[in-house]
Design a protein that fits this description.
Largest sheet: 5 strands, mixed
Structural class: alpha+beta
CATH superfamily of the largest domain: Beta-grasp domain
Strand order of the largest sheet: 2-1-5-3-4
Low-confidence stretches: 1-6
Helix content: 25-40%
Number of strands: 5
Mean pLDDT: 92
CATH architecture of the largest domain: Roll
Shape: flat
Strand content: 5-15%
Bound molecules: iron/sulfur cluster, FE2/S2 (inorganic) cluster
Oligomer: single chain
CATH class of the largest domain: Alpha Beta
Length: 250
C-alpha cells in the first residue's frame, strides 16, 4: 500500500471540512474517508467490504483544493484532508469477458483474442500511478501483450479488483480482468501441481473430516470460541517442514 496515499497528514486540527458530492461535512481529521462518510451520516451499503484494504470495494475519487490532480484511493485506507472533494466509485463498468477456463488455452494470443483492446495501451503508466496496491499495472499489461502468462499473473497477484486503474485508463482497458485471466490460466495450466493441496482435496472427498465437523457443530458457541482461540497456529516465520504438534486433524 502506498504511504503517500494512505498515511495520515500531520494533524493539528481536530476537524476538517470535506465535501461529499458537493455537500460539506466537518469530520474528525484522523478518520479515513470511509469512516468520515459514516460519521457524516451515510450508511454504506455499497462500496464497502473488508474495511482493511483487501476486498477492493471502496474505490474513491477525490480532489484537494489547489491541486489540479484527480486522485484515487481506497476509502478505507485514505485519510481525509482539509477541503477534500469526494466521490465514491463502488463499481466500475469494466469489460469482463465470459469464458470457461477449461476451454481457454494458455497460449500467448489469448489476451489479444479475449481483450483485443489491450493493443490500445499507449504506455502512459496512469494505471500504475492509480493503483492503491502499488502494483506495476502497466508492466503486467505489457507482459500480457507479449503473451507472458506467468509474468502477468505474478505481477498482478496483489490486485484487489478495485477498478481504479481501469477508471483512469485512456486506452479503456480492463486491466484487472486481464490480470485475473492471466492468474486463472497460470493456476490451471502453468503452475506446478501442489501435491499437499491435492492430497487434502482427496481426504476431504473421502469424508475424512465429516466426523470432526459434526463434533464442532454440536458444541455451544462459547466452547466453539474457546476451541478456536486454543487452536495451534502456524508461526509467521515457520520453516517449510512445520507441522502441528497434534496430527489428529490432518
Ligand atoms: S493506463 Fe491504460 S494506456 Fe496507460 S499504461 Fe496503463 S493500460 Fe496502458
Ligand atoms: S491493478 Fe487496478 S484493479 Fe487491481 S488493485 Fe491496482 S488499481 Fe485496483
Ligand atoms: S472496504 Fe475492502 S478495500 Fe476498502
Amino acid at each position: 500500500m502506498s504511504d503517500t496515499k494512505t498515511s495520515a497528514p500531520i494533524i493539528n486540527e481536530p476537524f476538517v471540512p470535506i465535501f461529499v458530492m458537493g455537500e460539506r461535512f466537518d469530520v474528525p481529521a484522523s478518520l479515513t474517508i470511509q469512516k468520515a462518510l459514516e460519521y457524516a451520516g451515510y450508511q454504506l451499503v455499497r462500496g464497502v467490504g473488508c474495511r482493511g484494504g483487501i476486498c477492493g470495494a471502496c474505490g474513491t475519487v477525490y480532489r484537494i483544493p489547489g491541486d489540479h490532480a484527480i486522485k484515487v484511493g481506497l476509502a478505507c485506507q485514505t485519510v481525509v484532508e482539509r477541503g477534500m472533494h469526494i466521490a465514491v466509485l463502488p463499481f466500475f463498468p469494466a469489460k469482463r469477458r465470459v469464458y470457461n477456463i477449461r476451454d481457454a488455452r494458455p497460449e500467448p494470443q489469448i489476451f489479444m483474442d479475449y481483450y483485443p483492446e489491450i493493443m490500445r495501451c499507449m504506455g502512459c503508466n496512469t494505471c500504475t500511478k492509480s493503483c492503491p496496491m502499488d502494483i506495476n499495472v502497466m508492466e503486467y499489461v505489457s507482459a500480457a501483450i507479449r503473451g507472458d502468462i506467468e509474468k502477468a499473473a505474478t505481477l498482478s497477484f496483489d490486485c484487489v479488483m478495485c477498478g481504479l486503474c481501469t477508471a483512469r485508463c485512456p486506452g479503456e482497458l480492463s486491466q484487472y480482468n486481464i490480470g485475473i485471466l492471466a492468474r486463472r490460466l497460470y493456476g490451471r495450466y502453468v503452475a506446478h501441481d501442489a501435491a499437499h493441496v491435492r492430497e487434502m482435496v482427496e481426504r476431504v472427498a473421502q469424508g475424512r473430516y465429516v466426523e470432526d465437523l459434526h463434533q464442532l457443530m454440536a458444541v455451544s458457541m462459547e466452547d466453539l470460541k474457546k476451541i478456536y482461540m486454543q487452536r495451534e497456529v502456524e508461526p509467521e516465520m515457520s520453516l517449510d517442514d512445520w507441522a502441528p504438534k497434534s496430527p489428529d486433524h490432518l
